[in-house]
Design goal:
With about 140 residues, this protein is of the alpha+beta class. It is built from three helices and six strands; from the N terminus they run ααββαββββ. The termini are far apart. It is globular. It has one domain: Nuclear Transport Factor 2, Chain: A (Roll), CATH 3.10.450.50. Strands 2-1-6-5-4-3 form a six-stranded mixed sheet. A hairpin with a 3-residue loop joins strand 4 and strand 5.
Length: about 140
Amino acid sequence: MKGLFTLTTLLICSICFAQSDTEEQQIRNTITTYFEGVMEADADKIRKSFHPDADIIRVNPERNYSYGYQTLSNWIQFTKRPAPSFTEYENSITSLDRVNNMAFVKTKMSWPKLNYIDYLILIKDEGQWKIINKVWEQEDK
């Protein structure tokens, strides 16, 4: 009987961990689509990674850390530009924390002259992970 209990417990734990890994991979896929959208100046990929009601906030250290608020559509207009021509960059997830249907992700986009630091809040909406809030700041290298 003890062996059956142990086996059942291990099975339940492995299912929970597998679901957790799947959810984390889906979150990472959303962030990858976001990175690709920014790097390729692809508004469709950006829209795909964000919830339509997302808020974007830029922290501005040049103005005593004031902030600028943008809607998703405003921010997409801001990102419309030719895709970057540089090839030396690194976009990475530096931390990821998930609880049920929400996740908190910190990212760093390290470009030749700047680093962009994002704090992203994602929610699982209709089975898809979407960025609902983005707070970002840039720093010179």
